[in-house]
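ugh ok fine here u go
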Amino acid sequence: MDDYKTIFHLVKPYWKRVAIAGVIGIIISALNASLAWLVKPALDSLLQKKNISMLMLLPYGVLTIFIVKGTFVYLHEYLMRSASQKMVMDLRNRLYQHIIKLPMTYFSKNSSGSLMSKVVNDTNALQFVVSLAIKDLLIESASLIALTGVALYRRWDLTLIAIVGLPTAFYSVGVLGKRLKRISQRAQEKISLITEILHESFSGIKMIKAFGKESDGTEHFKYKSKDYYRENMRSVRVSELVSLMMESVAGVGIAFVMWYGGKLIIDDVMTPGDFFSFLAAIFMLYTPAKRLAKVNNGIQKARAPLQRIFSLLSVEREKDGKNKINSFKWEIKFNGVLFTYPSAKNKALDHISFTINRGMIIAIVGQSGAGKTTLINMLPRFYMPDEGTIYIDGMDISALTLKSLRSLFGIVSQDVILFNDTVLNNIKYGKPESNQKDVILAAKAAYAHEFILEFPDGYDTVVGERGVKLSGGQKQRLSIARAILKNPPILILDEATSSLDTASEAIIQNALENLMENRTTFVIAHRLSTVRKADMIIVMERGKIVESGTHEELLAKKGLYQRLYEIQFRDQEEVTTSKI
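structure:
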């Protein structure tokens, strides 16, 4: 019953449409019952009284009932489909709104393909339940009651004989429904895997082609598709077993009724009109009974997606603070910050403490896995410390609203995120109220204006998914233009030029110089020029700060920084010296 309550709770906001559909359903049921009821007077008048006027009126009466019934069925179907479509739309909106407000730790544990499956496939499964299952509950339950009433009125003894097998059949339907629920759960998991494969394949198509893995990918997809097919066929077998059972019960009941009823007619115990009116009611009665059995199947199939959807909705969102911060004026302070990724053994950050002042450039260096990116991801609260506190101008960032906090930051990373939209809208993403003139100024400062004008549609050019139509350098410059337009007081550069060729890197370095001007900048650096320019260099190893200071101070210490300098930066210095 909990599943029925949950479904009705989902439909509750649209109760007016469902209520009107319910009233129409009762009318449809009454019309069904009236057809069975009219059989007796019609046949008695024709067969016994030879009433010619009844023969003339009967077709018109039946035609009128069917037209009226068809009209009401249309209205009922439209209202129920409308309610189900709106429910699915609102549920998808609710899921999307919830998902984008989940903490980053959730996304590190769950694939985007699985989330897509819940938003698309699971909600689709619920749409079927609402539009068909609830519709059948409304109409078929009323029809079952009305037709049973007609049958009982005509011959109560024959009615009991006809429906004696239904309770056993419905009990068996309930047992099979539990099995169907388990099959449906597995089927939803398998379609989720298929969605994941599709997402990974389409987003990684370049890599698949580069390694010639098209055939392997196809075979893997076929294998998973076959798994899903098998689960669906198990579902079909169970569902159709229910149909077979109901047909068998109906066949046995009607066969016995026809034999016994025919005997009663021969013995003049009942009239042909009584018998055929009763028989019509019984024939029509089994149709809603079979549909109600399938309603249970639909509800069982919906249980798995319901559980997955509400399990997702129960995940706690990012915690928002109550205080607003409108500007950055003085300092940023890390105080004993400790953080460990979910399911990881080692600490990503191990009691990090430092203070920097406004306007400083802070370079963060260290080997891969040292905790550099994790450190800067703590600033806009992409992750929350397990212990310790981060302050901006003396305010604990956990007490700040996410919107006001993140408005302070501009981020340019190695992995550039662009949306399948125009160049203009991608640059305006962080500041949508900007005018065309401001966008062009930002693009010029990012050295992007010239290549944008080379596109056939200029700033109205659609860049493709993740900027697939652009080169790495072009994507990076649009990312920088976006940050320049936002004009944040604090800048985060996460290895922004590490994957570029020398020519692109030189252009982007000039763009970054424009971007960094008069801003507090955190930069994960791999260029010697950036490191030398830094007011403070933080050297990290295994989640800890092992050294800090200026370039010259750290070289003098002859510690980890000097070793990193020898590995990473010495060649750059030699190239610079040779050019001089």
